[in-house]
Amino acid sequence: MSIEIANIKKSFGRTQVLNDISLDIPSGQMVALLGPSGSGKTTLLRIIAGLEHQTSGHIRFHGTDVSRLHARDRKVGFVFQHYALFRHMTVFDNIAFGLTVLPRRERPDAAAIKAKVTKLLEMV
Predict the structure, then answer these.
(1) Could you give the CA distance from residue 40 to residue 19 in angstroms, rounded to a whole number?
(2) What is the SS3 assignment for 8?
(3) In the chain, pLDDT over 90 holds for what percent of residues?
(4) Who has greater pLDDT, 108 or 102?
(5) 49-85, pLDDT tens digit by residue?
(6) Rounded CA separation 86/76 (Å)
(7) Distances (CA, A) of 6 to 13, 17, 40
(8) pLDDT band at 39, cuts 50/70/90?
């Protein structure tokens, strides 16, 4: 899925944490967000996933504006490097988790989940 982030701004009260962020991610590309603690990486990811709302700007998936879509309708997930991992689960299972909890009609079969997770793990 291609992702276009256009002129994203985010403020918490009077504090601006993201200022005019734009980024185009072509379908199939892997991108890393790097920066010091407090630089807005997690806030941007939360906005892309729909868990946080931007103050202004747009998010598009395959050219469709999803800025106003609910998080569940965006079907985006992310795995943190250290936090929020399930300690009782393997790396594979942590990555697969988001796919395994989708509603049955939307959930890929076990073979498709295995293929997707394996492909992701081969990239890192």
Answers:
(1) 10
(2) strand
(3) 56
(4) 108
(5) 999 999 999 999 999 999 999 888 888 877 666 667 7
(6) 18
(7) 22, 16, 16
(8) very high
List, as one string, the DSSP characters of 32-101: -----TTSSHHHHHHHHHTSS--SEEEEEETTEE-TTS-HHHHT-----SSTT--TTS-HHHHHHHHHHT
CB contact set of 20 (below 8 Å; sequence gap of 6+): 7, 8, 9, 57
Q: What pLDDT does 115 receive?
A: 95
In the structure encoding, which two tokens stand for residue 81, read together?
């490097």
Q: Does CATH place domain 1-76 in 3.40.50.300?
A: yes
Contact between residue 56 and residue 68 where contact means Cβ atoms under 8 Å apart: no
Strand order from edge to edge, sheet including 64-65: 15-25, 3-12, 56-61, 64-65
Can you give the residue ranges of every domain in the chain? Answer: 1-76, 79-124
Neighbours of 27 (CB within 10 A): 9
